[in-house]
Amino acid sequence: MLENDYETDVFLSGAIANTPDLQFRDWVELQALQYDYLRAAGASADSVVLDVGCGPLRLGSRLIPDLTAGWYYGIDINGETLAIGRDVLDRLGVSADRVTLIESTDFDVAAIDRPVDFAIANSVFSHLNLNSIARCLLNVAEVLRPGAALHATYFDVSLDRWNSPQSFVNFGREFPTYPRRDPYHYTQAMMADVAAWAGLSFRLDPGYAHQCQTMAVFTREV
Ligand SMILES: C[S@@+](CC[C@H](N)C(=O)[O-])C[C@H]1O[C@@H](n2cnc3c(N)ncnc32)[C@H](O)[C@@H]1O
Question: What is the residue with the minimal CA distance to atom 4 of ligand 1?
Answer without folding.
Answer: 55
